[in-house]
């Protein structure tokens, strides 16, 4: 067997590199070396990676996983893990499946050359630089196969498109990429700039990272507004796309109930396809029909129109992001979305602030003034991730550096290979779903062990044609033709790959046409360890989907995040549409929580003619209630005592459009009020509060400042 072993070099010890190594090693046909330029595994998810360790994943743990390791085995309970929990998961995967000595740390690959003229000594020559404490070592090694697992995130985009080199060097106003942002100190306080009223902070970019950073800054500013009792800078979020924000929890879609479940369960459900249909990967450019269908779907799921307003232009690219509170923050006025392209940043004459010129989609240019901080979330230069490949190899891969988002043409092994270069793979480049990366790794093993490259040649040609058309649309700025997620058919790709790779399918209590698609549903035949871990993971997913306890917890969380904002209150007897009937206001203002285990809490204000009352509302993920805490004016940042709970679940907990709950006193257990929260999508549009014989109604109100 040893004489048949082939050598494989993998660049990068992130999720893609680890699952590829583990998959190839299981065949007992390869000797694998992983080159990792840092001292840690994890890639983006490493403690010193590009992702904030405290940021929550926008997909749940069943999607952010591999078939051979369940989250339960590492003791993780959160449905949506934080980045630091993902790091723990990857470290355990590494410990179980990657032998000692496989990863060469602190070693950067600087050059990869195709030795097509000397195949006897290995096809690829890899040049590396290893940094030691007291030296730097350069080495050349030869390998039979090459895997690039660096992903498309190696080099953040610069601000050169809208800021001159002189401005970037000389500006006193911080201009930072979203990967460098952790707190307001990164753009303002640490630099000594003013947070005076009338100033502005600008976030640029309509991607997931743009919406996440905008939400994070909005929460920080809202907290300062409470602690400093003063107006804060206006937060402007510039996006060139028509942006929709979907919650990590979405309506189940089950008839007769207003329940919620993780977005993955709804978006990636096998039941979204006809039960008698063989499901395969679909792709194609956008058109007006797909645009309209996408808008209707996102409106129905979220309950909100685009956060940029109701204007609908089919030549604007759609963008859907997963964010728990972005839409509510925007409706509340903590984020001001601006549709358009940032043309330029300039130094304000005679001031230390910046001005920005923005070109809206269908209006004259607008100018933003008094900017004290800029965070640009304008993506990454994916072309830089393959810069160490020799020119001949890049040419064979269809390399086009002018298309920075998709610089390579990958038609084989489920978007991880170019069929013209069969001894090289590029993992997790077009799709970053963990389940897709695992399928890509299995396809590599099939190609390199059995010589069977998937999918079939005619489909590879179709994918290559689409890839070419997509790149042309991007380069020509034909935004109407660019899908929100150009390679987004996760369900289709994984189902097709599992079928063509002849994997064993684990459906548990589901039929083959039911339930969410996740990595644990597909395991390698005759791998009992992988199957045992996958069964454990599938069982957990099915418990989350069907248990009353989980349903109550999801309901509590959906209501908690849906309460953000200002509510007009009135007696039910005067409940009419006219805003003149509003008797009172109830303001749920988010702020950072002193308890670091919670994302945020609400300071709930109820102004009245006599006095303003205050309470603090909290929710801990996985619990079936919202807790109500007392407020102390002497210690405004603390929550002295939990006095009441709003508990979800029980009989008649849901109706077709509403969720019910009961508020009780903590000390006595006495019932105080019954609530009915009426939803459209994930948006609460009406709350009824019945206390004794009196029923109060809350309706969303405009932000009052």
TrEMBL record:
Keywords: FAD, Flavoprotein, NADP, Oxidoreductase. The keyword ATP-binding does not apply. GO terms for molecular function: flavin adenine dinucleotide binding; N,N-dimethylaniline monooxygenase activity; NADP binding. It holds the Pfam family FMO-like. InterPro entries: FAD/NAD-bd_sf (IPR036188), Flavin_mOase (IPR000960), Flavin_mOase-like (IPR020946), FMO-like (IPR050346). The keyword Nucleotidyltransferase does not apply. PANTHER family: DIMETHYLANILINE MONOOXYGENASE (PTHR23023). Belongs to the FMO family. This is FAD/NAD(P)-binding domain-containing protein. It comes from Massarina eburnea CBS 473.64. The lineage of its organism: Eukaryota, Fungi, Dikarya, Ascomycota, Pezizomycotina.
């Amino acid at each position: 067997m040893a004489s048949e072993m082939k050598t494989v070099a993998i660049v990068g010890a992130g999720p893609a590199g680890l699952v590829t190594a583990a998959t190839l090693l299981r065949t007992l046909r390869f000797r694998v070396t992983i080159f990792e330029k840092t001292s840690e595994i994890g890639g983006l998810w490493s403690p010193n990676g590009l992702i904030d360790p405290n940021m929550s994943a926008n997909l749940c743990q069943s999607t952010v996983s591999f078939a051979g390791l369940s989250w339960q085995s590492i003791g993780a309970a959160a449905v949506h893990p934080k980045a630091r929990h993902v790091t723990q998961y990857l470290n355990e995967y590494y410990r179980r499946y990657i032998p000692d000595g496989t990863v060469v740390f602190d070693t950067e690959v600087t050059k990869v050359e195709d030795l097509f003229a000397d195949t006897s000594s290995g096809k690829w020559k890899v040049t590396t630089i290893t940094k030691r404490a007291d030296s730097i070592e350069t080495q050349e090694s030869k390998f039979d196969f090459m895997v690039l697992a660096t992903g498309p995130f190696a080099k953040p985009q610069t601000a050169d498109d809208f800021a001159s080199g002189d401005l970037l060097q000389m500006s006193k106003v911080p201009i930072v990429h979203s990967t460098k942002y952790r707190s307001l100190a990164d753009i303002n306080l640490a630099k000594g700039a003013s947070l005076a009223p009338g100033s502005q902070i600008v976030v640029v970019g309509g991607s997931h990272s743009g919406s996440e950073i905008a939400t994070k800054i909005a929460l920080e500013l809202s907290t300062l507004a409470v602690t400093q009792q003063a107006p804060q800078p206006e937060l402007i979020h510039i996006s060139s796309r028509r942006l929709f924000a979907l919650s990590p929890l979405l309506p189940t879609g089950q008839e007769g109930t207003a329940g919620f479940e993780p977005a993955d369960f709804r978006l990636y459900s096998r039941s979204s396809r006809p039960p008698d249909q063989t499901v395969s990967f679909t792709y194609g450019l956008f058109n007006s029909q797909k645009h309209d269908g996408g808008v209707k779907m996102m409106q129905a799921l979220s309950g909100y129109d685009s956060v940029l307003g109701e204007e609908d232009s089919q030549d604007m690219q759609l963008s859907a992001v997963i964010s728990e509170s972005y839409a509510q923050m925007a409706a509340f006025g903590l984020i001001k979305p601006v549709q358009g392209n940032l043309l330029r940043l300039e130094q304000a004459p005679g001031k230390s602030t910046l001005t920005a010129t923005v070109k809206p989609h269908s209006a004259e240019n607008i100018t933003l003034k008094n900017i004290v901080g800029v965070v640009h979330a304008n993506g990454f230069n994916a072309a830089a991730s393959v810069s160490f490949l020799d020119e001949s190899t890049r040419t064979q891969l269809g390399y086009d550096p002018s298309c920075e988002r998709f610089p390579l043409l990958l038609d084989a092994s489920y978007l991880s290979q170019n069929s013209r270069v069969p001894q090289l793979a590029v993992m997790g480049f077009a799709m970053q779903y963990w389940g897709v990366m695992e399928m890509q790794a299995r396809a590599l093993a099939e190609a390199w062990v059995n010589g069977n490259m998937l999918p079939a040649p005619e489909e590879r040609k179709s994918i290559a044609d689409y890839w070419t058309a997509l790149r042309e649309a991007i380069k020509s700025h034909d935004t109407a033709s660019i899908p929100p997620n150009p390679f987004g058919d996760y369900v289709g790709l994984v189902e097709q790959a599992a079928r063509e790779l002849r994997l064993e399918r684990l459906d548990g209590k589901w039929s083959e046409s039911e339930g969410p698609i996740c990595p644990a549903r597909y395991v390698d035949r005759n791998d009992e360890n992988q199957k045992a871990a996958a069964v454990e993971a599938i069982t957990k997913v099915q418990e989350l989907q069907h248990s009353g306890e989980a349903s109550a917890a999801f309901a509590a969380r959906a209501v908690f995040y849906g309460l953000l904002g200002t509510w007009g209150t009135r007696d039910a007897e005067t409940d009419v549409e006219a805003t003149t009937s509003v008797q009172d206001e109830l303001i749920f203002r988010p702020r950072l929580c002193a308890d670091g285990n919670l994302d945020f809490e609400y300071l709930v204000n109820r102004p009245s003619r006599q006095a303003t009352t205050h309470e603090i509302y909290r929710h801990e993920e996985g619990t079936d209630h919202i807790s109500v805490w007392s407020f102390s004016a002497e210690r405004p940042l603390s929550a002295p005592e939990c006095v009441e709970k709003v508990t979800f679940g029980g009989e008649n907990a849901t109706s077709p459009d509403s969720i019910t709950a009961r508020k009780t006193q903590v000390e006595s257990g006495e019932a105080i009020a019954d609530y009915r929260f009426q939803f459209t999508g994930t948006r609460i549009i009406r709350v009824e509060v019945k206390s004794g014989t009196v029923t109060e109604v809350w309706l969303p109100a405009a932000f009052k400042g």
